[in-house]
Design a protein that fits this description.
Pfam families: GTP-bdg_M, GTP-bdg_N, MMR_HSR1. With 359 residues, this protein is an alpha/beta fold. It has eleven helices and eleven strands.
């Protein structure tokens, strides 16, 4: 065992179906894989609700602890966000690094952010998260990602105190604020261009960037079989039909239980949704997954007050499956992409065209 290995601790509430829970576990494994961590053992405890002090009950913790002392995984990953108290108690129980779901997502964002601005946003969100959980002297650097995703910085032992963190938060906010102006300007340019704005929305890894690439017949957007490949989405001008063009935005993928601070940090990119004339909701080809994704998308659109926008719902990766519920496409084989363009055209111009005819 050792480097890059982890135990996953997942609490299953009785009301959660086995199937739903297993999907959630698979997702946790994929999240870990995104930062090259292999889950070697999964420990599950079932009950009404997790232990408010230690997440798992103390007997089970002792059992896992004894087991881990032989195998020595590098990390203990909790499948949910831990409360400060649960976190504090678990780090006392385990001589390994304890990471919760939110932190794992921070690490992925951190590893995938390419521009300085993207990195600042993740760091700010993570510091704001960690500062609420500080109990002792400070936060160890390793918790801030010197471990997972950005190894070898040799700062694992260094502790950061509250004062340093607050100063850093202030300076990060200033840096991000500066960029807000240029985001606003770009948005204004887009709106002034008078072209309709379309945004691709969907769960992480469903193929949004691949679809945009396929529609543009290019391979410029970054596509990867890992979560949160796109953190700084691009906007492209897409030919629809004859003299008709639209601006198409890619977007940061959704996920269940996205840490609130990351949602806030990436709001400026996700916000493009609220400036769109049309949303293309991209779902996985598997029926159950698609249903679950749609619920999360609906919730997020509610938060953005954008649930009443015009929408086209599609399932991508239809090359992998025989039947899909929604109109299906494949970014890989380009199946039904022409039909999708017709749908976009109808959604954006049908009413205007009809009005023109009546005049
Ligand atoms: N079989 C198949 N694979 C696809 C299709 N579209 C995308 N993929 C694969 O799915 C993976 C994710 O694709 P992306 O385009 O990066 O997905 P995304 O939705 O932009 O993901 P994030 O940016 O992480 O939110 C990649 O490995 C793609 O090659 C498709 O139509 N069929
Ligand atoms: Mg993408």
């Amino acid at each position: 065992m050792g480097k890059n290995t982890a135990y996953l601790l997942a609490y299953r509430e009785i009301k959660q179906s086995k199937e739903e829970f297993n999907e959630y576990l698979d997702e946790m494994k994929e999240l870990a894989k995104s930062v090259d961590i292999k889950i070697t053992e999964v420990f599950v405890q079932t009950g009404m609700r997790n232990d408010p002090k230690t997440y798992f009950h103390s007997g089970k913790i002792k059992e896992i602890s004894a087991y881990a002392s032989e195998e020595k995984p590098e990390y203990i990953i909790a499948a949910e966000e831990l409360s400060p108290l649960q976190y504090k108690n678990l780090i006392e129980e385990f001589p390994f690094e304890v990471v919760d779901r939110s932190e794992l997502i921070f690490f992925i964002f951190k590893a995938n952010a390419k521009t300085n601005l993207g990195k600042y946003k993740v760091e700010l969100a993570q510091l704001q998260y960690e500062i609420t959980r500080m109990t002792g002297k400070g936060v160890s650097m390793s918790r801030l990602g010197a471990g997972i995703g950005t190894r070898g910085l040799g700062e694992q032992k260094k502790e950061l105190d509250k004062r340093y963190i607050n100063t850093r938060i202030k300076s990060l906010k200033e840096k991000i604020e500066k960029d807000k102006k240029s985001i606003k300007q770009r948005r204004k340019n887009r709106i002034n261009s008078n072209l309709p704005i379309v945004t691709l929305v969907g769960y992480t890894n469903v193929g949004k960037t691949s679809l945009l690439n396929a529609m543009l017949k290019q391979e410029k957007g970054y596509v990867k079989n890992k979560y949160f490949a796109t953190l700084e989405p691009k906007c492209k001008k897409l030919f629809i039909d004859q003299d008709k063009f639209a601006l198409v935005n890619d977007s940061v993928g959704f996920i269940s239980k996205l840490p609130e601070k990351l949602f806030e940090a990436f709001l400026s990119t996700i916000e493009e949704i609220s400036f769109s004339d049309l949303l293309i909701i991209v779902l996985s080809p598997h029926e159950k997954e698609a249903k679950r994704q749609l619920e999360i998308i609906d919730d997020t659109l509610e938060k953005l007050e954008s649930n009443d926008k015009k929408k086209i719902i599609i399932q991508n990766k239809c090359d992998l499956i025989e039947n899909c519920d929604y109109p299906f496409v494949s970014a890989k084989t380009h199946k039904n992409l022409d039909t999708l363009k017709i749908k976009i055209k109808e959604a954006l111009w049908k009413e205007a065209d009809a009005e023109n005819k009546n005049q």
